[in-house]
Amino acid sequence: MAIKSHLRNNNPVVLAVSTNDGLSGSAENIGKLLNRNNYFFVPFKQDNPITKPRSLVADFKYLIPTIEKALDREQIEPILL
């Protein structure tokens, strides 16, 4: 409900992806959110390509820069590290 209210007021939503199926089951949903307005992602990378081949994890050193850019309605680049 909080995000719906946030979006209704045209405010940015910052997401930090950390998931074990980001390159399989969740990939479609992540892709949909990447194409929507007001959603901004903390850059993320593959967690461990050998032991977790479908896992993604946000790089939290980019959290503050992502928030700053989101307030200016810009996505920090690159999004996939």
Examine the secondary-structure arrangement and name the CATH architecture.
3-Layer(aba) Sandwich
DSSP, total strands: 5
Low-pLDDT segments: none
- Following the backbone from N to C, one meets helices and strands in this order, namely HEEHEEEH
* Oligomeric state of the chains in view: single chain
CATH level 1 class label: Alpha Beta
CATH fold-level assignment: Rossmann fold
Number of domains: 1
CATH superfamily, called what? Flavin prenyltransferase-like
Distance between the termini: 31 Å
Query: Rg from C-alpha positions?
Result: 13 Å
How are the strands of the largest sheet arranged? Answer: 2-5-4
Mean of residue pLDDT values:
87
**Main sheet attributes: strand count, strand direction, barrel closure:** 3 strands, antiparallel
